[in-house]
Design a protein that fits this description.
The protein is mainly alpha-helical. It has 3 domains: 207 residues, Ferritin, core subunit, four-helix bundle (Ferritin, Up-down Bundle); 146 residues, Ferritin, CATH 1.20.1260; 146 residues, Ferritin, core subunit, four-helix bundle (Ferritin). It contains 19 helices and no strands. Helix 4 runs antiparallel to helix 7, helix 8 packs parallel to helix 10 and helix 10 packs antiparallel against helix 11. The longest helix is centred in the N-terminal third of the chain and has 29 residues.
Length: 517
């Protein structure tokens, strides 16, 4: 490789757990091809003909190289060769795709490191052959005799311990080495070694906890996901034109397209990774019954059944996402699960809102209590504002404030809307009476005039609006009904505009609230 290994580190870190792009190639085929092409890293470490040293430009010895530099360089050259050699064994002999993937990762990451280290050794006249140590040869011979789950356990345990030792040795080089190039190379390699250790620990844990041979868990997940997409496809086809709400009709049309693309992607991965196609052609008996019930329903019954079907399916997928992700050995599938979980959470919230808003189905009891409390507070504020506006009529000395008071009818319509929702959702009326403190405040406002009235009026509303803006996020979260969430969001935008306007007048006319605080 012509590029320096440490220049690859940002890319390697971004590709953590990622498969390489391009035409899929069988790992075993790639390994066999490398052997047939005479890749020296794959030659039997026990063979005497492999006893070759690094060719040096001269025998003069390196400058500014201490014993630590020589020790680390020679040991790391051997170590990187071991990683490549053992990695190919993993590709060929692993029982789990997770282990085979890790082996391929070691080949991809340590091959350029090995090459660059050889060049660095030549440059600094560090001579050493690449023969494995007796311990490395013994481990190689042991791994050669193993396969399947026994290989997985031995190989991954070795990798965890080996990378711990590599990190320790590399830290020694960084702190005690003298040669600038070698120390810089070692320092640049530490992030990748730490990443490899974390990956090795994760794969070893997966294997020890029953990670299936040939990644059966991933294959099972893929087949189940393809079947679910096929099932969804049948539900969506049977639902075309049946929704009575525009929002649901739009969702069905959009979801049909995205689901079709998702199914094609999953099937493509199944064929690429496991060498076979999977295209379900029929539903299970229970799923067929579900499809028939949705197909035969109409109006409210259809919409309720349709949304309840998908909310149950999305909730199940969300609950299993962490386990599904841990079984995925391919980065594309992990990304698919993560993005799918985000989409499922969004759609689940949307459908739960529709069910509650349209048909009073599944409304959260905890949210219902918080929502009811917010509604009562909002109704009281609207009623209070109505009384303040009535007491302020004709009192403003500035025309702009007088127009604001005259045109401030939003609270009257808001009051009616909020009371209507309260009556519909909770089955009772709520018509508040003013608190004694607020009655006193209104009376004081009536007794004011000129600057005294205007500053008190502006202070009352700016304080109230700022409090409402501050609590808007929590208020919206507590709203079970979409109409109320929309009300909170729209009202917050209006209040922010009004707040800016009244504070501007207060500053301009009376030099108050000029900081905008």
């Amino acid at each position: 490789m012509k590029n320096r290994w440490w220049s690859l580190l940002p890319v390697l870190l971004l590709l953590a757990g990622c498969s390489r792009s391009g035409t899929p190639t069988s790992p075993v085929a790639a390994s066999n091809a490398a052997v047939s092409n005479g890749d020296p890293a794959l030659q039997d470490p026990n063979a005497p003909e492999f006893d070759k040293g690094i060719a040096l430009d001269d025998k003069s010895g390196g400058k500014n190289v201490n014993s630590q530099d020589r020790k680390w360089t020679t040991e790391t050259i051997k170590g990187t060769r071991v990683e490549v050699l053992f990695g190919h064994l993993a590709v060929q002999r692993a029982g789990s795709d997770s282990v085979a993937w890790f082996g391929r990762r070691m080949i991809d990451d340590h091959s350029p490191q090995h090459e660059q280290l050889e060049a660095l050794a030549r440059k600094n006249h560090i001579s050493d052959n690449e023969n494995l140590t007796s311990e490395q040869k013994a481990e190689y011979n042991k791994l050669q005799r193993l396969s399947g789950s026994s290989f997985d356990e031995e190989y991954m345990s070795y990798e965890v311990q080996d990378h711990k030792q590599d990190i320790s040795d590399t830290k020694d080089e960084v702190s005690d080495g003298r040669n600038h190039d070698i120390v810089s190379f070692a320092k640049a390699g530490l992030p990748m070694l730490r990443l490899h250790l974390a990956l090795a620990q994760n794969v070893r844990s997966f294997v020890k906890n029953g990670g299936g041979a040939t990644s059966s868990a991933e294959r099972t997940y893929l087949r189940n996901a393809i079947y679910r997409s096929y099932f969804d496809q049948q539900i969506l086809a049977a639902s075309s034109g049946k929704a009575t709400h525009n929002e649901l009709r739009t969702f069905i049309t959009t979801f049909k397209s995205s689901n079709s693309s998702q199914m094609s992607q999953l099937q493509s991965w199944h064929k690429s990774w496991f060498g076979s196609s999977y295209s379900p052609t029929s539903l299970t008996t229970s799923d067929q019954s579900t499809l028939d019930r949705i197909r035969n329903a109409s109006g409210q019954e259809f919409e309720t059944r349709f949304m309840q079907f998908f909310t149950a399916q999305w909730q199940k997928s969300i609950n299993s996402a962490a386990t599904d992700g841990s079984h995925a050995t391919h980065s594309q599938l992990r990304s698919f699960i993560e993005s799918g979980t985000t989409a499922n959470q969004s759609n689940l919230s949307k459908f739960q809102g529709y069910l509650c808003d349209w048909y009073q189905v599944g409304c959260s009891s905890s949210n219902s209590a918080a929502e009811q409390s917010y509604l009562k507070k909002a109704i009281y504020q609207a009623y209070l504002n109505q009384q303040v506006i009535a007491a302020s009529s004709g009192k403003a000395t500035h025309d702009s404030l007088g127009s604001f008071i005259s045109n401030y009818n939003a609270q009257n319509s808001a009051l009616n809307q909020l009371q209507g929702w309260y009556r519909t959702w909770y089955g009772s009326n709520y018509s508040p009476a003013l608190k004694s403190s607020d009655q006193t405040m209104i009376q004081n406002l009536k007794n004011q005039s000129g600057q005294g009235f205007e500053t008190q009026f502006i202070s009352f509303f700016t304080n109230q609006w700022q409090n409402s803006i501050n609590s808007a996020s929590t208020d919206a979260e507590n709203a079970s009904h979409a109409q109320l969430r929309s009300f909170v969001q729209t009202r917050t935008t209006m209040l922010q505009s009004n707040l800016t306007e009244l504070r501007g007048w207060d500053c301009e006319w009376y030099q108050q609230q000029c900081s905008g605080s």
